Amino acid sequence: MSTAIVWIRQDIRLADNPALAAAVRSGARVVPIWIDEPTERGASAIGAAARVWLHHSLGLLSDALAERGVPLLFAQGDALTVLERLVKATDASAIYWNRRYDPESIRVDKNIKAHFSDLTISSCKGALIFEPWEILKGDGDPYRVFTPYWRRVAARLAEEGLARPVAVPRSMPEWTLSDTDVASSKAPRFVTDVNELELLPSLPWADTMMEGWHVGEKAARKRLSTFICGEAVQAYDSARDYPAVDATSMLSPALHHGELSPRHVVSKVMAGRSVHELNDDETTFVKEVVWREFAHSMLYHFPDTLEHPLDRRFERFEWAKEQDEPFAAWCEGRTGVPIVDAGMRQLYQTGWMHNRVRMIVASYLVKNLLIPWQRGEAWFRDTLVDADAASNTFGWQWAAGCGADAAPFFRVFNPVLQGEKFDKEGEYVRHWVPEISDLPNKFVHKPWECPNDLMTSLDGYPSPLVDLKVSRQRALDAFAALKST
Predict the structure, then answer these.
(1) Is 373 annotated in the active site?
(2) What is the pLDDT of residue 230?
(3) Would the CATH topology of 1-126 be identical to that of 312-484?
(4) Is the pTM of this model over 0.70?
(5) What CATH superfamily classification does 1-126 receive?
């Protein structure tokens, strides 16, 4: 029997996994492997929080494959070196994987394809509904604005429908390590216990961060069904901006790690209907999935945006000279602005932050503190369980006013007004910033204005790092200076 290697990457699932399905259809013995690549660097690197999620998710995928008589192999090292060793150990004739779109992954994949020119190399579309080169303007250029991009996607969906997700393979040829030469101690080593990868970081939150999460493909599918079949999706358009309300799908980690495919998510929402038959709430949710695709398209067509602003004028922007202390305060949730601190504490403790609050904390860092978006992106990348390179970079450039379809730089979110609008009763900030929990609603988003007799109830909560009005004007002046050069 021939052997086909399936390189698991950001597709930790059995259902709607085109690479796995294609390998099974070939009739070969399927050898799945996940590789921890220490050479990953920069914005393509896997952050600490994502590695915690990976540890648990990979363990569950390993169990699911073991139930089918197929071991999931793990290895550490350069991907080409690992695959070269595995091809020799298994006498493999084919390698399958689902495509990724960041520049580092594209570089690695091209090198591997060139190296194994005598093997069948099959890369599949498993991470997106539409490839970055499938949704283009009439002149062949990529879209830079989301609305026309969405219209084109919606038109394609209306014309072509949505391909059915690929089913879980009914059966795979069973095999054991003794059937191959992979048990050798020769480097790189292949193991079947994810614990041997030591993915879990030595950080204080590594053990507690996952307490509120249910990881893995089965849990993600259950969460999706609950969201779609319950009331949440039917109030999505109006409720998703309120961080104290459980109104979002919470599926971003599952999509990032590939426990769910976007095709599966959208097909579940559409339920056999045309995209034009969806109601406003369902359409808004599907747009959020497509926004993720837009981010991947932007990264594919403009790979420099991982580190550089799409609007190159911002490379000359005059950032604050003193950054380290205010940046540390921002990271630790002690800026003195409750909704900013609530978001940063939620992030550090859970590995996730509500999207509305992500915009608020990003605006505050870049515009009120005048700290470069790249520092915020790096912190999010390390602390978010859903730290997708494309979405994370795209979101930060959007907030900084230097990316595609970005909020203009002169749009500075006022965190007090944002808090009063989207957390009117202060439920969200009281939960994450207990020092201010006794304040009346009038002052819960601006404790620095409370009368002296209430100051004692602040339990050491800090004064604001900057005056919001003064810092806003400083940001506008810096932007004006940039435009004049």
Answers:
(1) yes
(2) 83
(3) no
(4) yes
(5) HUPs (3.40.50.620)
> What are the domain boundaries of the chain?
1-126, 128-165+217-301, 312-484
Strand arrangement, sheet containing 29-36? 73-76, 29-36, 3-8, 94-98, 120-124
288 catalytically annotated: yes
Active site residue 34: no
Match 């849990």 to its residue by tokens: 219
Kindly state the DSSP code that residue 191 receives in the 8-state scheme: B
Residue 482's CB is within 10 A of a number of other CB atoms, namely 16
Strands 94-98 and 120-124: parallel
Active site residue 355: yes
- Point out the catalytic residue in the list 34, 213, 330, 373: 373
DSSP bridge pairs for 191:
74
Query: Is the CATH number of domain 312-484 1.10.600.10?
Result: no
Is the pLDDT assigned to residue 402 strictly greater than 90? Answer: yes
**Residues 402/466, Cβ–Cβ less than 8 Å:** no
- Tell which residue, 355, 350, 320, 315, has the closest CA to residue 333: 350
The predicted pLDDT at position 452 comes to 82
Pairwise pLDDT comparison (459 vs 159), residue with the higher score: 159
- Mean per-residue pLDDT, 57-81: 96
**Does residue 319 carry a catalytic annotation?**
yes
pLDDT tens figures, 376-389: 999 999 999 999 99
Catalytic residue among 150, 396, 398, 432: 396
* Surface-to-core class of residue 142, CB atoms within 10 Å of its CB (0-12 exposed, 13-18 middle, 19+ buried): middle
Tell me which of 40, 319, 414, 448 is the catalytic residue. Answer: 319
Instruction: Return the beta strands (E) in 402-465 as ranges.
Output: none
128-165+217-301, CATH topology level: 1.25.40
Catalytic residue chosen out of the listed positions 134, 355, 420, 448? 355
Identify whether 175 is a catalytic site residue: no
Report whether pLDDT(208) > 70: yes
Q: Which of 175, 205, 291, 448 is catalytic?
A: 291
Which member of 288, 420, 435, 448 is catalytic? Answer: 288
pLDDT at 187 over 80: no
Asked whether the predicted pLDDT for residue 6 surpasses 70, the reply is: yes
pLDDT in the model for residue 43? 60
Give the mean pLDDT of 452-479: 90
Q: What is the mean pLDDT of residues 241-267?
A: 97
Instruction: Return the beta strands (E) in 358-424 as ranges.
Output: none
